[in-house]
Design a protein that fits this description.
Distance between the termini: 74 Å
Mean pLDDT: 92
Radius of gyration: 23 Å
Largest sheet: 9 strands, mixed
Number of strands: 17
Bound molecules: adenosine monophosphate, magnesium ion
CATH architecture of the largest domain: Roll
Low-confidence stretches: 7-26
CATH class of the largest domain: Alpha Beta
CATH topology of the largest domain: T-fold
């Protein structure tokens, strides 16, 4: 009997390290894919031994992203959002749970940021046309007329009938600052449901890092240098299982007479936001929250933006100001490394 016990013990001792090794080598297999959707390039990197399963998870994710885009775009012939906008001041429009959820979140963040984030910004966004072939500096009168229409309080949400309406004709919703975030959360859900534990997905600057790297160490994410070419970083942050979203003045813009006009609008002025920030990065669990907050903080500026962030739990930020200073919230400082001496770390606000 003792012999048998010894044998079993020996067998277990041999098998444990074997299983551990096996796990590691399997996970080193990486499946990559890139697609264009939601107006941006979306990159998948899945680390899993089962390529077929990973490929299936990517295909399902892409399908889901396109579904979200088809419901919430304002750049195609039709979508649920276009239907709402066309019926502003006229009718309630019934929408799918996806669209209702994202509009409701956008409305919550509009309130929370006291209108720095405003989901009804669409008329001004369209007027500037930043990122399109028709980009131009509008006349002040044109801005003034449309500013009257920008007001998140004119959104009516009817939970019971899952219907949405804007109070005034001419008002319109733009979900460009939040829909990619929602897509990121949905991708994470789908990958996780397929049993994927290690993945890195980048939806045009909205990063979803699932789990840790294969060796158990945190993911390293570069913060784009707003003043330099794409791919050049000011800092690196380390995260595990987080969403990391950046809003920056380098994403979509045009330059006229040496001045940069970018795509994040201050709903109070109708001009590209100039609150002293050139990039704001939010790190949190849900990508939809990170996306909405990165835009809101950009418009609010360093002090007001930080006040908003500090009121929230489990939300960290990296904010770069126009005078090349970087502010990192306390919970992220240990995991932050400056990599460009052109920028200076701000220890406190005063
Ligand atoms: P993001 O890159 O996430 O900061 O989102 C910017 C996009 O959101 C723009 O291209 C507009 O479509 C839209 N947008 C611009 N300004 C605002 C704002 N103040 N509130 C909400 N959405 C905005
Ligand atoms: Mg955003």
């Amino acid at each position: 009997m003792k012999k048998v016990t010894n044998f079993v013990f020996l067998l277990i001792m041999i098998m444990i390290p074997l299983m551990a090794c096996n796990n590691q080598s399997n996970k080193a297999n990486v499946i990559q894919e890139e697609v264009f959707a939601l107006g941006t390039i979306i990159e998948f990197k899945i680390y899993d031994d089962d390529s077929k399963k990973a490929k299936e998870a990517i295909d399902k994710s892409i399908q889901r992203i396109r579904e979200i885009e088809d419901k919430m775009t304002i750049n195609k012939d039709k979508s649920e959002l276009i239907e709402i906008n066309n019926n502003a001041g006229i009718n309630f429009i019934y929408v799918s749970p996806d669209t209702f959820f994202v509009i409701k979140k956008a409305s919550e963040y509009s309130k929370l940021s006291q209108g720095a984030f405003d989901l009804t910004i669409e008329p001004i966004v369209k007027l500037w046309g930043i990122g399109t072939d028709n980009a131009r500096i509008p006349k002040q009168e044109e801005i003034d007329v449309l500013l009257d229409l920008i007001n998140y309080e004119d959104l009516i949400l009817d939970e019971e009938s899952q219907s949405v309406m804007l109070r005034k004709k001419g008002q319109a919703i733009d979900l460009g600052a939040i829909a990619k975030g929602y897509a990121g959360d949905e991708v994470k859900r789908i990958l996780t449901e397929h049993g994927i534990q290690t993945a890195f997905v980048n939806l045009g600057g909205n990063v979803v890092a699932i789990g840790t790297k294969v060796d158990g160490s945190p993911w390293k994410i570069g913060i784009q240098n707003p003043l330099d070419e794409r791919g050049s970083h000011v800092a690196v942050i380390e995260v595990k299982d987080k969403a990391v979203v950046t809003s920056g003045n380098y994403e979509r813009y045009f330059i006229k007479d040496g001045k940069r006009y970018h795509h994040i609008i201050d709903p109070k002025t109708g001009y590209p936001a100039e609150a002293g920030i050139i990039s704001s990065t939010i790190v949190t669990d849900q990508s939809i929250d990170a996306d909405a907050l990165s835009t809101a903080v950009y418009v609010m500026g360093l002090e007001k933006g930080l006040k908003l962030i500090e009121r929230m739990e489990n939300v960290e930020a990296v904010i770069i100001t126009e005078d090349n200073q970087i502010y990192v919230t306390a919970g992220l400082r240990e995991d932050f490394k400056l990599s460009n001496p052109q920028f200076q770390l701000l220890e406190n606000l005063n």
